[in-house]
Amino acid sequence: MYIDDRTTREYLDGVEEFCIIATRHIQSTNVKTIFCPCRDCKNVLRYADIKKIENHLVIRGFMPDYNIWYWHGEKLPVDRSSQEDVLEEDTWPLTFENSDSDESVEEDRISEMMDGLGDHVHEGSRMYENVSKAAETQLYPGCTKYSKLSGMLDLFNIKTLGGWTDESYDLLLEKLHDILPDGNDIPKSTYYAKKLMCPLGLEYIRIHACPNDCVLYRKEYENLDACPKCGVSRYKRKGSNPNRKKWPPAKVLWYLPIIPRFKRLFSIKEEAKNLVWHDEGRKKDGNIRHPADALQWKHIDETFPEFGKEARNLRLALSTDGMNPYGTLSCQHSTWPVLLSIYNFPPWLCMKQKYIMLALLISGPKRPGHDIDVYLAPLIEDLKLLWEEGVPVFDAHTSTTFTLRAMIFCTINDFPVYGNLSGYKNKGEKACPICEEEMIPQRLKHCGKNVYMHTRRLLRRDHPYRNKKKNSMGIRRNVLFVSL
């Protein structure tokens, strides 16, 4: 693979052999994308099309020092004498809140997470071996309470909860390295701490988007430099250097794939047990204590009996709204996170921060509006796969493998966002999606708004609003509802 002349038959045969091995590997692991080992991608970028990777290898050449293809299914020799502590893949580390002070609980949790890595990394890879080594290594000589891995997880969790910057976290790690006894294994920078924990995190995908919200540069639009609909450039081209090869994208969508995270939840015994609480642990006395007691849940079970009979199938709530991530009250920037909540959990866990998944992050500076469906496309594709076909998942609670399916059970949002998600026109004379034609608007001449005088009749007879003529500001109250 390291022949200078990449047009020779020998090199082309090597590329073909690599493509066969890589294809077999993704078929055996049910992964949709393949790492590209060319000189530019360097096993960082992934692609679904093996032909694209083949073209990269022929045009750009094979990355140096990648003799054992451990990212593509080959096993490393068992008798290696040395291990690198720095891991190869860049992903976000997983942080979790730990309210247990019992050391054995912490060790069991990390052990379960390590067992769950089997679905995501090959047991013979360097990544798995390094994480296993970190879980068994004492944080410093004589330390029995924390391993190198558990200690860094706790420290990084504090960093996340406290909102520390990487610079301040670097200072803390350097100071702890000096304070603790000689021989301690604390990384000296945030970069190496993240590298240590990367297998416990999950990948994210950056997808370029048209600044006018027309398309995402994926699939058939992946290689375009301008929007096929509005013609606006894909990149922020500034300056007078026409020979510059890479420009920053004009707009980016961050997608955090949901299927690997669902697999991770079921790979932890405690979480897998909580995910069937609605069927096994819920008190069933006819009262509404959980969404599973509601008519909507029962209607879904009756309409789709194959879906309803598997208690582990997930019911999800989708929520989104605009926010300003910079802590100011200015309306000049609006970033939209798309969140998923899992209603299989008990009521006291459903809305915990730990179990609310960030699926999409739509960067600003303006709201997507009715074009939000363009950004939802990657999430919808995964949801369609989970609904129509399902994915094989290992359940640590029962030690069995089953086909996981999922659906959107409901959405949580305000009225304007409801219009964006559903496409319903929620302004003007027919603003209510329930009443629709029954709404009788009356236009106020001087304030330029539609009001609905007849809605007062919906109040009970003794309601205080029937007799209250003025509000707290002393302004006469003549109407109950004003349209948006």
From TrEMBL:
Pfam families per record: Transpos_assoc, Transposase_21
Gene field: LOC130463323
Residue ranges annotated for the Transposase-associated domain, each copy included: 1-74
Organism: Spinacia oleracea (Spinach)
InterPro entries given in the database record: Transpos_assoc (IPR029480), Transposase_21 (IPR004242)
Record's protein name: Transposase-associated domain-containing protein
